[in-house]
Structures are given as structure tokens and as C-alpha cells.
Amino acid sequence: MPKPLVPLGGRPLVAHALAAARDSGLEPVLAVVSDPAVAAAAGAVGGVEVVWNRDPGAGISSSLRAALGALGPRGHVAAAVVGLGDQPLVGPAAYRRVAAAYDDGARLAVATYGGVRGNPVLVARDHWPEAMGLTGDEGARVLLRRHGAVEVPCDGTGEPTDVDTPADLAAVEARWRSPTASE
Fold first, then answer.
1. What was the pLDDT predicted at 101?
2. Angle in degrees, CA 30, 133, 130, rounded to 5
3. Residue 112 burial (CB count, 10 A)
């Protein structure tokens, strides 16, 4: 089973992650996928546009390129706020806070939780050409290291825990049941 389809509370991880992005009010919400079943789960969330990553073996950079390629022709989109499908506890308010950094002049921004960088991250359009040149498992974090980024405190909005192992899933399940897991 692809990791984004692992169930949490009766819904796939990716559904939780996409619902938070959608509920943030930011638009458009894109889900970059490379598997038909994940595409179906993403499309079922509602308000989500599915974008195909035709070269998933090329690493995380290929997903970022697919997303920015889909956003490129949309001149009204000034920045992308990027989250991950295996982080179901990131809340809508984190997306809003990171996006607001753009309005305050940030070109690159990153959510922090307890002072530790996490997701989502913001990449303004003027950094997209450089992002399109990333390769392998280089994602937006490479840009943050190269150029610095505004750190946006997102404490109280959820948490960016990755679900990579069964132990991670068990820990996330315990926190997900908590009423303050994500807002």
C-alpha cells in the first residue's frame, strides 16, 4: 500500500493533509501524485486538483517541479505553500500563517514548531526557476538553506510529524485522538 493511503482514523493520511491545506482557504490546492489510488484518494477530498508526477523515481524534486509547473501559467499565484502528504497533523492555521509571511515581504518562509523547522514552507514565484532546477531528493529546503527564510512560529496549529514507520503511525494516532492535535 502506498504510504499516503495508510489509514488514520478511517481516512488515508493524504486526506488529512489535503483537508488541512484546503481548509486553510489558500487556493489552488494541488496534490502531486504518481499512483492512481493516491490520485483517487486526493480527488475525493474535494477542492483539490490532482497533478501527476511523471517521474517519481527522480526524487522529491520531481514533485516540486510538477507542482510549480502546474502553477506557472497561473500568473495570479505569487507563491506556493508546500506541505507533505505524510504529515496528517499539520493544521490549516499553519498554512495560513506561512502564507501571511509573503504578505509581510517574505520570499521564502518555513513553519516552526517549538523553534524547530517543519512544514509547510513558502516559495515565492521569484524562486521558482531555481526550484525547477533542483534534482534528486532536493526539495524546497535547499532553497531555504541557500537563501535563508523567515521562520514562522506555528505552535498550537498542529505538528509536522512524518509517518514513515509503524511506530510513527502509532504515535500520530495517539496524538490525532487528542482534541488539540491540530486546529
1. 98
2. 85
3. 17
